[in-house]
Write a structure and sequence with these properties.
alpha/beta, 8-stranded mixed sheet, two-stranded antiparallel sheet, 5 helices, globular
Length: about 220
């Protein structure tokens, strides 16, 4: 387990990654692509680590724990390990919230269900589920502890995107920009300001430092 540093969620205190390796979503803009990636695998020594007390832990921050190629048994073992340290709060983040439903009753009691939806459009920059699919399944989870991440933010249609997010009913929305120079289709400053204003009508906004490049 590591203390959270760098361009991470400010409210997270630690990251813990018992499952590592190349994510099958293959997002062209993923920051992990700059590092050599081995096939996805479970690290038994990390799984056995002491997770401490009253920490806020981002689980598997370097890959998607709920990608379709991650064995269900591995996910169960990770969740069981988390529940041994039930004073902690856990953040899970995925682009495949459909699999949250498979394990809904197995999560620790203090869990935030994160979903990444960078836009309401499709730009063929990854192999992950569509944004519409992500929105549909995270709504089906019907949890009061859903948090949405728009990072890296990409060009979007304002009204459909706001409507999509409103229907998800997130506790808050994290908004960030591309930090690695991938030349993504990005919205301009005025459009981001308008999006933030509209979202503030029904949820809290947490803006990441890297968003300043676009603002």
């Amino acid at each position: 387990m590591r203390e959270s540093k760098g361009n991470m969620f400010e409210w997270v205190t630690h990251t813990w990654s018992p499952i590592v390796g190349e994510c099958s979503h293959k997002c062209s803009y993923c920051y992990m692509r700059k590092f050599p990636q081995k096939p996805i695998h479970l690290k038994e020594n990390v799984l056995a680590e002491n997770l401490g007390v009253k920490n806020v832990i981002f689980v598997c921050s370097g890959t998607d724990l709920f990608a379709d190629d991650v064995p269900s048994l591995w996910i169960v073992r990770v969740l069981d390990a988390c529940k041994k340290y039930n004073s902690n709060t856990y953040l899970f983040q995925t682009k495949n919230p459909k699999r949250y439903l498979d394990f809904k009753e197995m999560f620790p009691k203090n869990t935030y269900f994160g979903v990444t939806i960078e836009t309401n459009e499709e730009f063929n920059l990854d192999k992950s589920p569509t944004r519409k699919s992500r929105a549909d399944y995270i709504r089906k989870l019907n949890s009061p502890n859903v948090v949405l991440t728009i990072e890296p933010i990409m060009q979007f249609e304002l009204e459909p995107f706001v409507r999509m997010i409103r229907e998800i009913k997130p506790l808050w929305v994290n908004i960030g920009a591309d930090s690695q120079g991938h030349n993504l289709p990005e919205p301009n400053r005025e459009k981001i300001i308008e999006l933030v204003a509209r979202l503030k009508e029904f949820t809290e906004i947490k803006k990441k430092v890297n968003l300043e490049r676009l603002k």
